[in-house]
Every structure is written in structure tokens, then in C-alpha cells.
Design goal:
The structure holds 2 protein chains of 2 kinds. Chain A is mainly α. Chain A has 8 helices and 2 strands. Chain A has a single domain, classed as Arp2/3 complex 21 kDa subunit ARPC3. By secondary structure, chain B is mainly alpha-helical. In chain B, 63% of the residues lie in helices and 0% in strands. Classes of the chains: A mainly alpha, B mainly alpha.
């Protein structure tokens, strides 16, 4: 799902940078308000986890490969705005140091994997887990279903951004300048490989980690709830 | 997060880093991430934007490999593990710094509006 440089024309990649800049600003304001200083290392570990899980490439029929992202998991523990920041940091480092995803496409990749994926995943999870007790199986089931839907919506959107290029920049003398397959190819290609394979990997990883947290340190699943009551405790007092 | 959980999560991350070469077993390229060589083969040409996009930025650990390492599975695997460790260190430090700047501002704000 890491769009390289040159696959999206300037209209698309610039538009998605313009969308991302205010979202990064809002995210930092949200974190200023909600993220406790003592949870900053957890956020950093979440970003590192997302990075390393994306290195596990999985093959699908047809010669393509893909991977999980872990964005919904970060959103479940620290909230979707924290996930936006964590996945964005991972994506920027991947682009700058590892050439995975383009520099011009940072806006697009952060929008797809850092915004759409964790927000969709998180709200589906919230819908399913609702007010269930922290030990309830609705948490890990909701985590699995939410992360599956999140990564699929993100992948389908990426397919849409790809295919859009053939409309924005039609072929000249039979040669395209940017992405070259129409929406009718790019959308199903991105959707099906995630619906059939990578979505399940994302779901299994997310559900397993949430199940593990339920058993070992369930307080981690209550971090976002406790924010409000913790606000009353003066800064500097460790809880 | 208690210290015990933090320790367990770090162990989990390091185990994942050591296991990353599993990701090298997957042959092929992700949809929409093809190199110009692959595009030349399938399309018969390389779209001009993609051609110039490829040389826009030269990442030091391009493709999660170490500079000067060969293409053997052993070299690729070591490169992959080192990339994972370097990436985890960079991302952890960057997020921690960013988070601390934000958290610091939060405390300043509280001092201003008690």
C-alpha cells in the first residue's frame, strides 16, 4: 500500500499533502490534550511496531505481496489521533531511510494508512466493544473485525487513487505518464488481495495482541477512557 | 503501562525484528509498487512520471538492505534484521521526541491557566 514517487500525478499527491497538514496539526492538539506524558513511550512503541510488522511481506496469487499495518491496534490502545501520529512517523522514516513509499506520496500514504485505516478500524471496534467489560471477548473480536474493515477501506481507497491517474492524466500516444491501469483494474486488485489475504493477517495480529493485553495488562485497554478522570490529577503526579 | 508489560512489549518487538527475514520469502512486488524494469517488461515502456520519480530520492537503506551488501539470502536477511533494528530505533526516538515536545507544551499550558 506504499505508493512510490511518480505513481500519482501532482494534482493527487499535492491534494493529499494539503489534506494531511491540517490533520497533523489537529492530531498534535488532540494529543496535547489527551496523551499523558507517561504514555509517550507506549506511543513510540506503537509506531515501531507498525514499522516492523509492515516488513512481513506475504505473497498472494498473481505475484503480488502485501502486509499488515497495525494502525487499528494503536488506535484501540491510544486513540485514533495517536495512531495517526504513530503511523505517520513510521511512514516518513520508511520513505526517507528505506525508500518504501515516495517522498511526494507521503501525504497520500499517511492519509490512507495513517488516517483512513485507524479511524475506520477504531470506530468499528468501538461499535462492537461498546461498553463491554475489559475482559469481554467483544474487545478482541471487535479488534479483529475493525482492523479487517479498516485495512480494506484503506486499500480500496489506494486503488481508487491509483486508477484516478488514468482519468486525470490520460495516455498520450498510448503511453501514460503516471499510474497506468484504469479504476476497473486498480480498485478490484487492491480490494481483493486485502479482502482475501492481508486483511485477515491484520485482523489476526490485532485480535491476538488485544487478547494478550486483556490477559496480561488490561489497564492498557482503558487508557482512552481514563483520560477524563486523570485530567483532574495535577501534572507531575504519577499514577 | 507497568514496567513488566513494557519489558514484554520490547521483547516482542525484538523477536519480530529477528524474524523479519520471513518477509523476504515472499516473491514479487506489491501492486502499484513496481520498478521500471518490471514496468518495461509488462507495458513495453516506463511511464515518464514513474521514471523520474524513481530517481527523486535515494534512500540510504533502500529496499531495507544495507549499502554494499550482496543479494544472497544471507546478506538480505542480515540487511533486513539490521534495517528493522535501525528503523525501530529511529521511529522510537522520533516519536518519543515528538511526544515529549507535545507533552511539554501541555504542562506549560497548565502553568499559564491554573
Amino acid at each position: 500500500m506504499h505508493i512510490p514517487d511518480g505513481y500519482l500525478g501532482p494534482i493527487t499527491w499535492m491534494a493529499l499533502w494539503i489534506v494531511m497538514i491540517p490533520l497533523w496539526i489537529i492530531a498534535s492538539r488532540k494529543l496535547k490534550k489527551d496523551l499523558k506524558t507517561k504514555n509517550v513511550p507506549l506511543l513510540a512503541m506503537g509506531a515501531a511496531f507498525s514499522f516492523v510488522i509492515m516488513m512481513f511481506n506475504v505473497p498472494v496469487l498473481g505475484g503480488s505481496t502485501g502486509h499488515a499495518v497495525g494502525g487499528t491496534l494503536i488506535a484501540i490502545v491510544l486513540g485514533p489521533w495517536a495512531a495517526l501520529v504513530a503511523v505517520s512517523v513510521a511512514l516518513v522514516i520508511q520513505a526517507l531511510f528505506f525508500g518504501d513509499g515516495g517522498i511526494t506520496a507521503i501525504g497520500a500514504n499517511c492519509f490512507n494508512m495513517g488516517v483512513v485505516l485507524p479511524f475506520v478500524g477504531y470506530y468499528v471496534y468501538r461499535l462492537i466493544s461498546a461498553n463491554a467489560d475489559t475482559s469481554s471477548s467483544r474487545h478482541w473480536i471487535g479488534a479483529g473485525i475493525g482492523s479487517y474493515i479498516g485495512i480494506n477501506v484503506a486499500a480500496t481507497l489506494t486503488g481508487f487513487e491509483f486508477g484516478l491517474q488514468t482519468i486525470l492524466y490520460p495516455a498520450v500516444n498510448g503511453k501514460f505518464q503516471y499510474f497506468m491501469y484504469p479504476l476497473s483494474v486498480s480498485v478490484p486488485a487492491m480490494a481483493f488481495e486485502h479482502l482475501l489475504v492481508f486483511g485477515f493477517i491484520e485482523a489476526i495480529v490485532t485480535a491476538l495482541v488485544v487478547r494478550y493485553l486483556q490477559q496480561t495488562d488490561p489497564s492498557l485497554l482503558r487508557l482512552t477512557e481514563r483520560t477524563i478522570s486523570q485530567d483532574k490529577i495535577p501534572a507531575g503526579v504519577s499514577v | 503501562m507497568n514496567k513488566n508489560t513494557q519489558k514484554k512489549l520490547w521483547i516482542g518487538l525484538l523477536i519480530l525484528a529477528v524474524l523479519t527475514p520471513i518477509g523476504l520469502l515472499a516473491q514479487g512486488t506489491a501492486f502499484g509498487e513496481w520498478g521500471s524494469g518490471e514496468l518495461q517488461q509488462t507495458l513495453g515502456y516506463v511511464p515518464a512520471g514513474i521514471k523520474s520519480g524513481e530517481t527523486l530520492w535515494q534512500a540510504i537503506f533502500s529496499g531495507y538492505s544495507m549499502p554494499g551488501f550482496g543479494n544472497s539470502f544471507l546478506h538480505s536477511s542480515i540487511g533486513y534484521i539490521l534495517s528493522a533494528v535501525i528503523g525501530i530505533a529511529l521511529i522510537y526516538t522520533a516519536t518519543l521526541t515528538l511526544g515529549k515536545i507535545i507533552a511539554k507544551r501541555e504542562e506549560e499550558q497548565r502553568n499559564e491557566n491554573p
